[in-house]
Write a structure and sequence with these properties.
The chain has helices at about 5-10, 60-65, 75-85, 145-155, 165-180, 190-200, 230-235, 245-255; strands spanning about 15, 25, 35-40, 45, 55, 85-90, 95-100, 110-115, 120-125, 130-135, 140-145, 215-220, 225-230. The protein is an alpha+beta fold. The protein has 2 domains: about 1-100, no CATH class; about 110-255, no CATH class. Helix 5 (about 165-180) runs antiparallel to helix 6, helix 6 packs across helix 7 (about 230-235) and helix 6 packs across helix 8.
Length: about 260
Amino acid sequence: MNLKVKSILNSVSFPFASTGTDHVWLLASGIGSLEVVQDENDWTLVDQSSGKAADLPPDLKEWDQSGSEHPMVFWYVKSLLLAISSLEVDTDRIILKIESEQTFERASEKVFSRSLGGLVYCIRYLEGMEKYFSIGSYFSSVNQNHPLTKIALKSRYLSTKDAIQDFATCFVMGIPNVVCTDRDDLDCDNRWKKYIGSKYISIDWSKYHDSLKPPYLVRLRNGKEIVISDLILKEWQMIIPEKEEFLDMISDVDSEL
């Protein structure tokens, strides 16, 4: 993930196929739009111009799945494509668009890693989607241009963070875990709710611009919108999760804080 974005766009090709055998390798810069779709195992990306889905050739797939240590090549394929894409919603379809112009030098600069919960991708949400802080899909993402996300990105390598930087980092990493993608509610992962709420109430919000303050709008995978308000964040602080779960989550967050 630490590749330079220009190198990915100009030098890296990705495998696509429609039947599992007719594989072609598409240069990143030549890919236009990709639809996020569920497949039999997990999810994949379908090239809108050819109808072919991202997929490893049989020999590479066999090598990837053999032995005790799996390189997870297909996971890296999807991760790299996500890291160089913007996102839009067409009715109920999540569409990624490969961006030839990038504001980040390396793909890793747009990704937050959670030791217990995979990756969170900071993606530019396109016209009509800018109002959302997070859009539910088969992967975790947040709005790259939201003021809180910008603070989290700029402060991610600081050895010491102030209260707003702490909250921004926690919110970026936690909200995709809190928002259920398969139910119409926020009834997920009390560990993150507790931690986000605790960080939220520690801030003197009178010092900050309204663009940083709640309400925050999120979109579930089924299209429903949910508003995360000041009241909800304060209620989250009152949650008492299981001790072991809370300690695991703190360890997860500390990998970024």
